[in-house]
Each structure stands twice: as structure tokens, then as C-alpha cells.
Request: fold
Amino acid sequence: MMFKMVEKILYLGLMAMVLYASLLGEAVAKTKLSATKNISSQQVERNDYSVVYRKNGKRNWWEENQTPSTRFRVEQLVAPVALVGIGALGIGENSPMRGINLAVRDGMTGLRKNMPLRFDDYVQYVPVALYLTMGLGKGAACKHSFGERVAVAATTYLALTAMTQGLKYTVREPRPDTGVRNSFPSGHTATVFAGAELIRTEYGWAYGAGAYALAATVGFMRMYNGRHWLNDVLAGAGVGILSARIGYWLLPLNRHIFKIPRKQQAFVATPIYYSEVKGAGLACAIQF
Reply:
């Protein structure tokens, strides 16, 4: 029974990842194709790598601040909407997923016994921390400056908080352990999957695969600890991915409002020794 349950969980997760990867491949192909097509006479080259877009003689700041990562494409909605939709099938005592939810809960209870593990409370924040810091200095190659990544992360988690809290206190699904009515969707899972999608978008699948593996681990631990149903975790993953996409879709607006420069930051760090107090420190400077 336990092996069949785990097999179902792995199968659902694998299918979602395969679907999402295939959609990303199609999106990249379409982006490259569209980039080679007509660039109208309304576009005037600037001194830097960006382009000034003009429409009816007026500067189009929205298009000017677009990049392949920030441009909206309908296919980006498929995976998160599918995950949230599948998760919604588990809401209520008479839901289509009720049997699977109960089987997973009982299996996790037997697996956990009296040994809960709470590291998921902290690990959920690791991906977003890495997203912000991996590109500093001579770190991983990134697509956007530190200031842009801060804007994307802030927008992402504002959208995530609004969606998760709105659903939690609208749906009011009871938790499997305490019965408190704020189970759907899983906030921990949404948080970690948002960070994983941010890493994938900014640094590519070479880093994104590891971030998604960590996110899946946190989702598993939410069920292992008895805090969420399976459908809560699936919906949380969808909300997290969608929130990250919203963060990038709105980056052109943040660039325009906050005048965020589109250039890579400079990062310098040097050790300092204070002989008077026999202490040491580290001085850092970041150019946004």
C-alpha cells in the first residue's frame, strides 16, 4: 500500500515536471523565432544594448523595458493552472481526490510515527535567498541586475501572499492534523516553488533542477509532517510558479516606476582588521 501511494505521488510530480519542461522548450523556440522577425522602423537603437520603442511618435516604455524573461506568453499559464486545478479537486469531504488524500495521510502517518521533521519551516526560504545572491560578484551568470532581482522577488512574494491567504480564508479547508481551516493551499510549498521558478528563470535549468528538487522535498515534508493534504501541496506548487511568473511579467513596470537600471551590479568585498580592538570585519559595496 505504501509503495503504491509513493508511486502515485512520484508519477504526478514527474508528469507535471515533464509537461512544464516541454512547455518551456516551446516558449523558448517561439521567443527566438519572433526575435528574428520584423523589427519595425518605430524602433531606434540606443547607445546601450536595449531598444527604444516608439508608437505614433511617443516612447513606449512598456515595450522598451521588456526582455524575453518578462514577456507574457499564454503557455506559461498551463502548468501552474493545471496544478491549482488538480489541487482544487481535493477540496471538501466528497471531493474526487478524497480517497487519495486519505491514503497519503495514513501512509505518511505510518512513515512518520513519532519522528516529525521540521526543517521545511526553514528550507522553504533557501531558493529565494540563492536567487538574490547567486549572481553577485563573479557568481553564476544571471540575466538581471541585483536591483531587478530584488524587484522581481518582492513582487513575487506580494502576489504569493495575496493568493495563498486569499484562498486559505476563502476555501477554509481543514488541516489533516489540527483541523484548523486554513489548509488549502500550502503556503510553505508555494514559497519554495516560487523561489525555484525564480532560479530557473534567472539562471537556467542547470541550477533550476536542483531548486525544484529542493521544492519537491519541502512539498513532501508538508505531507510527511501531517500539515497538508496532497492536493494542498499540488495547488501550492502551482501558486508558487504563477507568482514567480507575475514577478517577471511586472518587472517592466517596476523598472519604469523605480528607474531600476538595466545593468549588472558591481560587488566588492574586502576584509578589515581593527588593531585597537583586535577585531576583524568585512566591508562590502554593491553598485545597483
About this structure: The chain has one domain: 2-24+72-287. The first helix runs from residue 2 to 35.
